[in-house]
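Entry for the shared binder. Reason: the reviewer on the internal report wants the predicted structure included alongside the sequence.
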Amino acid sequence: MADIDDLKQFRPVIDLNAELVRHPEATFYGRVAGDSLSDAGLHDGDVLVIDRSLEPSDGSLVVCFADGEFRAGYMSVRRDGVWLVPAAGDRGAVRLDGEGRVPVWGVVTYVIKNVSP
């Protein structure tokens, strides 16, 4: 249950664009499909807010386009290259640099979750 002090901050109208979008011309939305990020708390059906104007860095949650589909995962900078890895280990990792490189399409800035049963 919410504390009464928390409710004092309640605003009846919240503009989600003002709250979640820093660069409107470069912001897109995508829906999570599958469970490769469930260990990070992202589940099938969650909505990702993706900013294409941001520069990704090690540990960023990013989206890339590989093998004809969009994929989300964490950017991992290692001695053997830069990789897109799922939350649960390296299985299914995709090379983001070097030969056969897959470019980062955008950086995930927010996740919108459905919490109703």
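Summary line for the report: The CA atoms of residues 79 and 100 lie 17 Å apart.
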